[in-house]
Amino acid sequence: xxxxxxxxxxxxxxxxxxxxxxxIGRSTLHALTCTGELPCVRIGxxxxxxxxxxxxxxxxxxxxxx
Length: 66
Prior knowledge:
3 helices
């Protein structure tokens, strides 16, 4: 039996994967999650991130200056 990728939801990312992808520190990711800027999914004690949410966050940050 083969898996049809169109029927499965995208794989959720771990904290470590998001940290690596965004090149940010754990405290920054924690702050983004707590403020709701980057939503997370909690499964028991595990925290995961939807890749689409991470991409939307990156898109919102483009062109933003301090």
